[in-house]
């Protein structure tokens, strides 16, 4: 039971972080379908930092360095989306999809190149981080507490305050609802949208490193992040683009994802004799069902996905 | 006045695609330089040469055949994405539809021992049903087809793994060979293997896929159905106002798209070119490459034939890079770069038209000035 709670919390943290990223981008008026790719690149940044960080540094320094690396990689990668979608008015769906493919392909190529350079016989795309991972984990009895659970909560509070209590957040949301009106009162829509996408890059990168640290202590970058970026988008839609509701949605989805990791620990569930693939499918099936019931009365930002054109004011 | 050659939409699309390809290859080359400057030129030429890396012409032909074998399913996936895109739907679920196609045709061939036509039609049917799911969700529940498509990709992948485990070899994670288990499920070659130095994987799949792309072109641009579908894509409410069944059109489009992708899977797996690995942990790349081919082909079914071949050409070419320095994923990197650049096509076309307009303006001004000078001279 404790294991289920542990996994639920950690997967919910991933989903929460990434969904909040998507939330910022969409409130500014850009649909960020590239979250999956941003997660992979953020994870790559963090994993590389864990590999190359000097040995014997304190846990705190390690956590800070890894987070900064993930944030930086996510930020830089999301600027590819921003420049295409905002400045060049590209189709956001195509660019997002391209970023997802590019993320996995680039991470695989980079990691393989590093591995092969270190050892010519090693052609795997795996990075190991057994020792550095310990910095993130505190054992409380049998419960493995992960610092990312705290980071996710802090991120949630920051997101809520930024969106609803600051001038910046309200202006950002105006750009996603009615950019022409926002522009007419002197808000720079392009800058605001850039800010929205870059913040989603930060959150996405953090979510990515959190995801690969959730279970195992090595990561094969060929696998990407198994649709988690899109699950996070489903969480965001289910949460109706509101941070506090997104948090609840993330817990629900996290629970179903965690079940596929730990269902063997429950005698009732193993007695049902359902193949493990069914548990693997669960989060995706649940999200489809949930979306079917909640999308009808969708409260999506009105101008999302539409490139801003000054001449249409 | 004669219409400028550069103003032709087809010429502009082709030019834009070529720019994307060249830039994609160039960035890929730069990445290779970063990894290891010594072999970068060899590696990028190996990717571009693909089957021409062999010196003997029989081997060249045989491997050219293999590239074509994999082009057929890619073309079908690209057609699936294209068909949906023309109706305003982004069919990212193509990878999942491809997956259920594999599942349907292999299960029918290996468990029920059906003939090839029955297997092919069964795959088409299952794909169409799978495609209806996001269609229904979109039409009646307003679920974004991109999100539901991704979810269905993963459900399809895990489902395929689960079902095909029943027809796999006991010692490996791979399914049985269709050729040894049920030879009558293999697609007829129509004598095509003779053209490719006896490569018996070259079957009717290739001409069939090309014929289907022409059919799709005809449906979209010459029939009432195509017109209605495109109208629905342009403006759902206007189409409804004009008396078109917009919900039915959305569902039908995604069903057809699903059928196309699923058929593509059958066209590859019923040649026994490869077996399905029942422990596959990521969605097949064929679907995503299909998206690349669609946009690179300038959203035209005929252009898609060439772009599909090109994407498959460099994907197969990735196998020939020097493995001690680079990995074959370098071609995935190049094709994803190309899709990213395809996002800029609109902007490219816009700038092309701007340049043309400026030139014409200049020429018109020059002609006017010349005429004025002439008039002045007459006086």
| Structural class designation of chain B | mainly alpha
Shape of chain B, please?
Answer: globular
**Poorly predicted residue ranges of chain B:** none
Helix content of chain B: over 70%
Rg of chain B, please?
Answer: 24 Å
CA radius of gyration of chain A is 20 Å
Total count of domains of chain B: 1
Write the layout of secondary structure elements.
The complex is a heterodimer of chains A (about 325) and B (about 375).
Chain A: H1 2-28, H2 35-52, H3 59-87, H4 92-118, E1 126-128, H5 130-133, E2 137-140, E3 143-146, H6 147-165, H7 167-177, H8 179-184, H9 189-214, E4 218-220, H10 228-238, H11 243-262, H12 267-271, H13 276-294
Helix pairs in contact in A: 1-6, 1-7, 1-9, 1-10, 1-11, 2-3, 2-4, 2-9, 2-10, 3-4, 3-9, 6-7, 7-9, 10-11, 10-13, 11-13
Chain B: H1 9-35, H2 40-49, H3 57-86, H4 94-110, H5 116-141, H6 145-164, H7 178-181, H8 205-222, H9 224-234, H10 236-241, H11 246-269, H12 285-296, H13 301-317, H14 330-342, H15 345-378
Helix pairs in contact in B: 1-2, 1-14, 1-15, 2-13, 3-8, 3-11, 3-12, 3-13, 4-5, 4-6, 4-11, 4-12, 5-6, 5-11, 8-9, 8-13, 9-11, 12-13, 12-14, 13-14
Describe it.
The complex is a heterodimer of chains A (313) and B (379). Chain A is mainly alpha-helical and 313 residues long. Chain A has a single domain (2-301), classed as ABC transporter involved in vitamin B12 uptake, BtuC (Orthogonal Bundle). Chain A is 71% helix and 4% strand. Chain A contains 13 helices and four strands. In chain A, strands 1-4 form a two-stranded antiparallel sheet. In chain A, strand 2 and strand 3 form a beta hairpin. Chain A is globular and about 60 Å long. The termini of chain A are far apart. The mean pLDDT of chain A is 87. Chain B is an all-alpha fold. Chain B has a single domain (8-359), classed as ABC transporter involved in vitamin B12 uptake, BtuC, CATH 1.10.3470. Helices cover 71% and strands 0% of the residues of chain B. In chain B, helix 1 packs antiparallel against helix 2 (40-49), helix 3 (57-86) packs across helix 12 and helix 3 crosses helix 13. The longest helix of chain B has 34 residues, at 345-378. The mean pLDDT of chain B is 88.
